[in-house]
Amino acid sequence: MTKNNYVALIFQKALGDLVSEARRGYMGMLWWVLEPVLYMGVFYVVFAIVFQRGEEGFVPFLLVGLVVWKWFATTVPQCANSLMANVGLIRQVYIPKVVLPGMVVTASTMKFLIVFVLLLLFLLVSGSKLSIAWVSLPVLLLLQLFMMLAIGGFLAALVPFLPDLKLMIDNGMMLMFFLSGIFFDISHVSPTAKTYLYLNPMTGMIDSYRHVLLEGVWPDWWMLGKIWIFSCVVFALGWALLKKYDRVYAKVL
């Protein structure tokens, strides 16, 4: 199968899954917006109202972190489980296993972009100024997409052989959630702690989005370069494993 066939298959399957998902509920596509809005609303109530951490500018600060994190947190676990979730399809017909994580990322990204556009509109209405730094947003989005595909694909290659890994992923996502700087400004952390926090690639990604959207300055390209290198290495490992065991997964699942 050629690269073009891979891409066509990924988009066709992703669109089919989205249409099927929209038809399963009465609210359809509207739920793609309401679900993340409710998700963000819960954290706003807890941190800004109950614990009264709502200093000036806290709402945009919080929303940028939550929207970016939600995309990551929704995509990676689904990618990790993509082979297991398609076990029936895998046993019935041959499908290159490398495309399954790509289908998840594509479908998740289509839904995320709707919420991201709404976030940009909210920021503009609430007083954030459009700056030249916003032209770097496509770079940030593509880098995060590639990073999620790399991590999700690597985990997808391992989960069929190590089913207990799913529990570790769930707990690891929870740990990353609280260490990604969603609720605090990473610049206020001590240099030593900051070094360890930046080992989490989502910390650098969220910080970069905030630099661009809230401060109107360019992101830290050096930090983004390190995330890109990390993603390339993980993507190569995941691709190699999925290709090597492509014919084995039907027997293992």
Q: Topology of this protein?
A:
Elements: H1 3-23, H2 30-50, H3 58-80, H4 82-85, H5 87-92, H6 99-125, H7 137-158, H8 165-179, H9 191-197, H10 201-215, H11 221-244, H12 249-252
Could you characterize the architecture of this molecule?
The structure is a single chain. This protein is mainly α. It has one domain (3-252). Helices cover 75% and strands 0% of the residues. The chain is built from twelve helices and no strands. It has helices at 3-23, 30-50, 58-80, 82-85, 87-92, 99-125, 137-158, 165-179, 191-197, 201-215, 221-244, 249-252. Helix 6 runs antiparallel to helix 7 and helix 7 (137-158) runs parallel beside helix 11 (221-244). The longest helix has 27 residues, at 99-125. The radius of gyration is 19 Å and the shape is globular. The model has no long low-confidence stretch (mean pLDDT 84).
Quick tags:
253 residues; mainly alpha; 12 helices; 75% helix
- Low-confidence parts: none
Number of domains: 1
Helix tally?
A: 12
User: Which bin fits the share of residues in helices?
Assistant: over 70%
Structural class: mainly alpha
Count of distinct strands: 0
Main sheet attributes: strand count, strand direction, barrel closure:
none
**What is the overall shape?**
globular
Distance between the termini: 23 Å
Radius of gyration, CA atoms, in whole angstroms? 19 Å
Question: How much is the average pLDDT?
Answer: 84
The H-and-E topology, N to C, reads as HHHHHHHHHHHH
